[in-house]
Amino acid sequence: MTLYLLTFILFAVGLYGVWTKRHLIRIILGLVIMETAMNLFLILVGYREDGVAPIITENSSNTAVMVDPIPQALVLTAIVIGLATTALLLAFSVRIYAKYQTLDLNKIRNLRG
Amino acid sequence: MKHGMSVIVQSIARLMVPFIWMFGIYIIAHGHISPGGGFAGGVFLAGGFILITLAFGSAPDKEERSQDFASKLESEALLIFLIMASIGLVLKLGLMANLLAKTHPGLPGHIAAGGLIPWENLAIGVEVSAALAVMFIAFARHRLKE
Amino acid sequence: MNPLVIILILMILGAILALESKDLLSGIIAMGIMGFGLTLAFLFLRAPDLALVQIIIETMTLILFIATVKITSNQETSERSISHRLLPRIAGAVFILFLTLSFYRVAEELPKFGEAVIRMAAPILAYGAAATGSANLVTAVILDFRALDTLGEATVLFTAALGILIVLRHEGEKR
Question: Domain limits at A14?
Fold first, then answer.
C-alpha cells in the first residue's frame, strides 16, 4: 500500500509539471515522469513475495513461485515506445523554436495572430 | 559535432564499441534463454552507434548516407517481421503462429529451440536499432545545418 | 524497511528537482536520478529484462534532451504563470481531489503488494516453455502468445522515426 501510494505521488508530480509549467521541455519532462510512474505501477502489481524472475533454468524446480510475466512483456514494449514518442515531441519543440525563437508557451500564444 | 571530441574519448570509444556491439548481438541471440531479447539488444547496438557518432563526429554527406542506410534497414526489418507473421496466416495456423515450434521443438534452455522466436528476435533487434539510429541522426543533422 | 520505499522516495525527489531546478540542463540531469532509480526498482522486482532495457534507454533519453537544449536555448521562461483567474484553479483542485479519491477506491480493490493473483499467466507459467521452446517466459509472451502486440509496437516505432524525419527535414524548404 505504501508503495502504491508513493507511485501515485510520483504520477501526481508529473501531472503537476505538465499543468503548471510554461516551458515546453519542462512539460515533456513531466510527461516522462508520468510514464515512469505508470511502468513502475504495472510491475508492482505483478510482483509476488519471494518470487523469481520468469525464466526457466536447468536447476530450477517446477514449484518455484514466479512473478507475473505479462505485465513485464507489456512494459518492455512501453519503455521503447516511450523513448520514440519523447523523441518525436522533442523534434516538434525544435521546429517550434525554429519558427518562434522561443519555447515559452505564453510568448508563443502572444505571438499568434 | 563536426570535429568530434578529444583524443581520450576517441581512444576509449575505439576500445569499447566492438565489445558493446558484441554484447548487443549476444543479447539478441540469447533472448529466448536468458534476460534480454530483440528490444534490449537492439538498443545496445544503437547505443554503440551513437557513441561512435558523438566521439568522432562526422561530415554532412556521411550523415546523409548513414541515414539512408539506417532507414532502409529499418523498413526491411519490419517487412521481414511482417512476412514471418503472415506465413502462419497463409498456412491457416493463425497470425504470428510459431511454425517451427511444432515440428522442431528443441529443448527449452538450449540455443537451438523456440521455433521462430530467435529469428523474430533478430528482426526486432535490427528494427529497433535502426529506428533509434535514424532518430539520432535526424537530430545530429539538424544541428549541423544550424 | 523495504529498500523499494527508499528508492521510490529518491525517485520522487529527483522528479521534483527535475521540474523545479533553476537551470534547464541540471533539471534534465536530475531526471536521470529517476530513470536509474527505476532500473534499480526493476532489479528488486525480479524483472531483469526491463532493467537491461531501461538502463540504456534512460541514457539515450538524456542524450536526446541535451541535444534539443543545445539546438534551442538554455533560457528559462520569464515568469511562472499559472492562470490567475479563479475558475481554472477551482477546476484543478476538484480534479486532484477526484483523482485521489479514485486512487483510494482502486487501491482497495487491488491485491496487496507481493500477493498478486495470477490468473491469465497461469497457463503460460505452467506450459509456456514446453509449448514454445523458449526458456525466457517474457520473450515467449512477447513473440508468441502476444506477438500481435509486438507487431503494433514495431509499427509505432517505425511511424515515430518517420515522423521525426519529416518534422526535422530541410530539403525543399524556403530560405
Answer: 2-49+66-111
Choose from A83, A99, A109 for mutation: most chain C CBs within 10 A: A83
Q: How far is A7 from chain C (nearest CA, A)?
A: 7
In a domain, A101, yes or no: yes
Total count of domains within chain A: 1
A2–C80: do the CB atoms touch at under 8 Å? no
Structure ipTM: 0.89
Interatomic CA distance for residues C112 and A45, integer angstroms: 8
Tell whether A66 lies on the interface with B, counting CB pairs under 8 A.
no
Q: Do C60 and B43 make contact, defined as CB atoms within 8 angstroms? A: yes
Kindly determine whether residue C19 and residue A87, on different chains, have CB atoms separated by under 8 Å. Answer: no
For the stretch C96-136, pLDDT in tens is 899 889 988 888 888 888 777 788 888 888 887 777 778 88
Lowest mean pLDDT among A78-87, B87-96, B131-140: B87-96
Does residue B2 sit within a domain?
no
**Closest chain C residue to A63, measured at CA:** C126
Q: What is the CATH number of the domain that holds A82?
A: 1.10.287.3510
